[in-house]
Design brief:
By secondary structure, this protein is α+β, with helices and mostly antiparallel strands. Helix content is 61%, strand content 12%.
Length: 166
């Protein structure tokens, strides 16, 4: 019986852990490729509305609060700890919320790594919208945070809460 309980707990965390690790790895390898193959400010058209534009950001979303990396390091650590606490304390046990939390955590860790080791975040995914309006370049980590948050909002909208173990 103890073995069965332990195995259920491990499976519960498996989606969360695998998603987090894969997202951090994808984020860091993509940024490494950009840093090694492009020069800051350069653009590589990919297809259609998508291009890679290598930019760095010492601030937060849309470059706000540039030059205050230490604030974002502290905020990232607090957010990561809060995510881990929430996930553990509330025993999130469904695959989709675990996937969403993994995306958010992986994104937070990916950008934290950049801030700690480089003092800035590498952004490169550029999307051109209508009339040549370009969305601010972002990275894999950013997309994980946004997609994970949207998934959690949808889950809460459907179920009224995040499904957890009773």
């Amino acid at each position: 019986m103890i073995t069965s309980s332990c195995s259920k707990n491990r499976r519960r965390y498996l989606v969360f852990i695998i998603t987090t690790v894969l997202w951090v790895v994808a984020d860091q390898f993509s940024k490494l490729w950009i840093r090694n193959n492009m020069t800051p400010g350069s653009t590589l058209p990919v297809k259609g509305i998508l291009s890679f534009t290598y930019l760095t950001n010492t601030g937060g979303v849309f470059g706000m609060f540039r030059g205050h990396v230490e604030i974002f390091i502290i905020a990232s650590v607090i957010i990561i700890l809060a995510l881990l606490f929430f996930h553990y304390y509330f025993k999130v046990n469904q695959p989709l919320p675990n996937f969403a939390f993994g995306l958010i955590l992986g994104g937070a860790i990916g950008n934290l790594i950049d801030r700690v080791f480089f003092g800035q975040v590498t952004d490169f995914i550029a999307v051109r919208l209508w009339n040549n309006y370009q969305w601010a370049p972002f990275n894999i980590a950013d997309s994980g945070v946004v997609v994970g948050a949207i998934l959690l909002i949808i889950i809460i909208g459907i179920f009224g809460k995040i499904p957890v173990k009773d």
